[in-house]
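Support request, please re-run this one:
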Amino acid sequence: MSATATNRSPLPTVSVVIPVYQNAGSLRPTSDALRALAARNAGAWRLEVIFVDDGSTDGSARELAELAAERDEVRVVSLSRNFGQVPALVAGLERASGVATVVLSADLQEPVALVERMVEEWSQGSEIVVCYRVARSDSLVATGGSRLFYSLIALSHPQMPRGGFDFFLLGQRARRAFLALPERNRFLQGDILWLGFAVKMLPYERQPRPVGRSQWTLGKKTKYFIDGLLKTAYWPIRAMSLVGLTVALGGFLWAAIIVVRKLLGGIPAVGWAPIMIAILVVGGVIMTMLGVIGEYVWRIFDEVRGRPLYLVARDSAEDGSATPAASRHDVAPRD
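Re-run finished. Output below.
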């Protein structure tokens, strides 16, 4: 991207999509940091900032309304309720108009200054730019759990950075291709790496959250963990087959031992403990397998019923009109 623009070639737009949920107090500093970044690059590109309020109840909506009224580059999309981070992100990506779109958190834990480097890497040919965490100021449990999860995901996505990523840039082709994916229960990072476009990886150190607390609860992490495992790999189903085969072989072996001992002189009464152990182990294995199958079936049902991924209650670019929006449009990738 040229550092200067001519009168004949208007400045290209770089969009920044920011999902918001209970982030009151951090939204204005985030907007200020982006504004300062845009000012430093005023001769290269112009900025579009899309905040997507995912049903916040903590004052975020008021803060966003003030920013939208004060700043031309700010657009606020308010969803009708809390749909989750990924639907909010998709709502922003569908409305982005830039030649490149950056996804940024609203918690001030990611270095906004790195956006400049991301845009530069994109301009040099990287359709996707991923910023991955090399260090994070989180608890030992959170850090260890994250590393374990992404280590498992790396079995099907070798490109997956250790610790995952939430801060990334998509070019127009990558953005359209991502939005064209039909799944509802997405594994965001896996979908992005699956696209196959040229990817540039940039490391950064995640900073402590200066305002508020994380809304990424254990329940949300667990669902995302399950979505990631079921969506990116076949091994849960294959593991069920292997476990079932192992238990069956063990059962056949035990049955053979019983028959042989019976033929050789009888089997002394040994009580109910072995029988109970066998029943509990086999029953536990069966219930676990049914649970895994249930997770797949639930996701199939969720896809089949075809409800919108999100609904928009208000969009500052549309004079605040309450307009329900379908979750996807004609976004098939094109050259």
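Confidence is low (pLDDT under 50) at residues 2-9, 320-335. The first strand starts at residue 13 and ends at 20.
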